[in-house]
Amino acid sequence: MQRRKLMLGLLGLASGSGMAGAYLASRQQASSVSPTPMPSAQATGSSPTPPPPTPVPTATVVAHPAAPNGLFIPPRRDLRLLVISDMNAAYGSVEYDPEVDRGIGLIPYFQPDIVLGGGDMVAGQDPRLSEERIRAMWAAFDRHVAGPIREAKIPYGFTLGNHDASCARSTRGGFLFQKERDLAREFWNDPAHDPGLTFVDRGDFPFYYTFEKDDVFYLTWDATCNFIPPEQMEWAEAALASERAQAAKLRIVIGHLPLYAITVGRNDPGEVLLEADAKRALLEKYRVHTYISGHHHGYYPGHKGKLQLLHCGILGSGPRPLLDSPLPPRKTLTLVDVDFATPDITYYTTYHMRDLSVIEQAELPRFITGHNGLVLRRDVNWDALSPEEIATCQGRIGSLCRD
Ligand SMILES: [Fe+2]
Ligand SMILES: [Fe+2]
């Protein structure tokens, strides 16, 4: 109820702003503004009035101090996921870039059902950091991000990143960042930091676990380095194969490292999960809809085979350019609106954090050729590639140029 009241308040704001109103008109579907014709039966009174048609969801625009053209709010569908990632600043920092606070400050406008985090919440992966400093870093994360989400009573489903709790190992087999892993575990298992999730299997929380929310089954795995041990993969397969997972309306997997490389400076085997094709085949087998990842610091809405690949943008320090793209690097966050009844199911709205403008999908490259495979933009199918595009792709990655 509170949510609806707030939306009405925001709508009131929008209608009071000429600029926002004009922008709204340009974004709306014509069908959403045409008057509803009077049913003929009502005019004659000869039969009962038919029920009104289900309203078409409409987008709106609200005034926002950081959005010169107003803040575009996509139409509400069944569910709304707010996806944020890579929030840390320089090693050891207890500060956050202003875009992090700005992103969290948008929660009252977006009213998501859940917030999903792609990892790199604090600025670790540095053996020189003391326990005291790492605790201070997590406390800062709680002040800027986790605390406000918790206070808004919105669950926070996250995966850890290499800067939170890297799983990199020494030649003797131990974790290189055991202290950081211990302190990440300590922070997330403190009841004061309860992320408000409905766990299905706590697995080895916060490293890998499953949870449910609104008919969506979520699995997060420990992709804080490029190698996921076989026993964890067996756990993941059993979890995805379970009746509970299969009965859900949608399955989403979240891990920090992506399957395929997409940005400059991250086009390297250490920056993506090993055996990406085999992992993708596993996710496809159990009808996972989307793999959400961070780490590459660039937004790219992709797909490969039957799997949607949402490469989160970054809110913190160090945005990176996409491979083979002239676009400048930028910080973003993404809303994923879910409509179970439509073929696409998920609808992305991604904001440029500079001015909260919406990034048009068409401005992004139609495909990206990283060192370990081709990723197609989510609205581009393999069959739609031109002979020139296929030649370009093959020139870059040879036989890896396939869907
Ligand atoms: Fe990162
Ligand atoms: Fe990372």
UniProtKB/TrEMBL annotation:
<keyword id="KW-0732">Signal</keyword>
<dbReference type="InterPro" id="IPR051918">
    <property type="entry name" value="STPP_CPPED1"/>
</dbReference>
<dbReference type="InterPro" id="IPR029052">
    <property type="entry name" value="Metallo-depent_PP-like"/>
</dbReference>
<protein>
    <submittedName>
        <fullName>Metallophosphoesterase</fullName>
    </submittedName>
</protein>
<feature type="region of interest" description="Disordered">
    <location>
        <begin position="30"/>
        <end position="60"/>
    </location>
</feature>
<dbReference type="Pfam" id="PF00149">
    <property type="entry name" value="Metallophos"/>
</dbReference>
<feature type="domain" description="Calcineurin-like phosphoesterase">
    <location>
        <begin position="79"/>
        <end position="299"/>
    </location>
</feature>
<feature type="signal peptide">
    <location>
        <begin position="1"/>
        <end position="20"/>
    </location>
</feature>
<dbReference type="InterPro" id="IPR004843">
    <property type="entry name" value="Calcineurin-like_PHP"/>
</dbReference>
